[in-house]
């Protein structure tokens, strides 16, 4: 799946709901025009929530159709595309974030963060916390964001591959394995509990994976949080499938899927309600949610920006349809380098060296396109 938006069109902040005097809260509203949503881990002046108008929309499932917010533009655009020269070797320009580069933790610094997290769990401040770090990598000569996007689509056909470039936010490229909230054209709401990681060894079948108690517990906490959200909304009619092993590039995760038929339950705003309860999920923040977020704010030592936020199209290709994914396995493009992001769920049994290796494995999912 792909959500790509490039070019100079300005980002239009559209405040559907408000989290404070001036802060938007995430919301799905079928009456609004089609948008690509880019929501940060923490909404702030540095990393505002963006709603990018879908002024040109193309769906790979209907390759012969092109939608334009201005219908008069469809014919000239199709004519332009028909005559457009084949791609040249000139790299395409992209928007750069005005924010300073984030601090990139060394292995000893990350080990110290993991140890602090484990101690917080031991002391009962949190049950689980997801620590993360950023890493800088040089861009190869002639790097082209659009070609990298295409290469990610081929490499990770199961992932939600995205390329978003917008003034203020910069340019983000990713291949996420994690659904936050989707609602399809048949009114089926879905979300998932994704956690626990191990490498997919050569020749190994995913169904042969054996999971340690640590990963089973880590993922069960995420599942339990989702069930608690349904309970909070007093919704009982959900289907739960799993946990089972899921493949994400060269990695395996444990995944439980949840589905609700919105046409069979009296919960017209379930998508928005769940979005607000879920983000940031316990797969990227921790549990209890607020205590884990406070821990990260105090100890993580860098600004996650749009990493572990969420993104995807809303009300596209039709009103009421939404596909929002957690922004994982992603990088931010700068002029000559990329900033890559990865995190690991900590439990009381976490080992700093293992958690560092896990972030290295996760960084190589997106890092593969820089080689
Ligand atoms: C936080 C990330 O992954 C989450 C999703 C799946 C597995 C995870 C884990 O095993 O820790 C994380 O919770 C990341 O990729 O940066």
Automatic annotation (TrEMBL):
<dbReference type="InterPro" id="IPR015890">
    <property type="entry name" value="Chorismate_C"/>
</dbReference>
<feature type="domain" description="Chorismate-utilising enzyme C-terminal">
    <location>
        <begin position="107"/>
        <end position="362"/>
    </location>
</feature>
<dbReference type="Pfam" id="PF00425">
    <property type="entry name" value="Chorismate_bind"/>
</dbReference>
<feature type="region of interest" description="Disordered">
    <location>
        <begin position="1"/>
        <end position="32"/>
    </location>
</feature>
<protein>
    <submittedName>
        <fullName>Isochorismate synthase</fullName>
    </submittedName>
</protein>
<dbReference type="InterPro" id="IPR005801">
    <property type="entry name" value="ADC_synthase"/>
</dbReference>
<feature type="compositionally biased region" description="Low complexity">
    <location>
        <begin position="1"/>
        <end position="11"/>
    </location>
</feature>
């Amino acid at each position: 799946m792909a959500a790509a938006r490039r070019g100079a069109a300005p980002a239009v902040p559209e405040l559907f709901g408000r989290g404070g005097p001036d802060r938007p809260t995430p919301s799905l509203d079928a009456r609004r025009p089609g948008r690509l949503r880019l929501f940060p881990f923490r909404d702030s002046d540095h990393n505002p929530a963006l709603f990018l108008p879908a002024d040109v929309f193309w769906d790979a499932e209907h390759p012969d159709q092109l939608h334009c917010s201005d219908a008069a533009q469809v014919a000239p655009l199709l004519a332009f595309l028909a005559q457009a020269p084949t791609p040249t070797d000139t790299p395409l320009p992209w928007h750069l974030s005005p924010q300073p580069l984030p601090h990139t933790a060394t292995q000893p610094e990350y080990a110290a963060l993991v140890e602090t997290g484990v101690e917080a769990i031991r002391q009962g401040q949190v049950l689980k916390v997801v620590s993360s770090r950023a890493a800088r990598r040089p861009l190869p000569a002639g790097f082209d964001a659009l070609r990298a996007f295409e290469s990610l689509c081929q490499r990770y056909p199961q992932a939600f591959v995205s390329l978003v470039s917008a003034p203020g936010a910069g340019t983000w490229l990713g291949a996420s394995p994690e659904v936050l909230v989707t609602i399809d054209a048949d009114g089926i709401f879905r979300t998932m509990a994704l956690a626990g990681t191990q490498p997919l060894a050569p020749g190994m079948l995913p169904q042969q994976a054996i999971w340690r108690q640590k990963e089973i517990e880590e993922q069960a906490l995420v599942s339990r949080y989702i069930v608690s959200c349904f309970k909070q909304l007093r919704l009982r009619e959900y289907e739960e499938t799993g946990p089972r092993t899921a493949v994400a590039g060269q990695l395996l995760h444990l995944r439980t899927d949840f589905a609700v038929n919105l046409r069979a339950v009296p919960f017209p705003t379930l998508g928005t309600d769940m979005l607000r309860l879920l983000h940031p999920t316990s797969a990227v923040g921790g549990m209890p949610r607020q205590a884990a977020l406070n821990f990260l704010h105090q100890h993580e030592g860098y600004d996650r920006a749009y990493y572990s936020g969420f993104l995807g199209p809303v009300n596209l290709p039709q009103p009421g349809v939404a596909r929002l994914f957690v922004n994982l396995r992603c990088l931010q493009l700068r002029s000559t380098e990329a900033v890559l992001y990865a995190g690991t769920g900590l439990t009381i049994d976490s080992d700093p060296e293992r958690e560092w290796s896990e972030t290295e494995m996760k960084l190589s999912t997106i890092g593969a396109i820089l080689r």
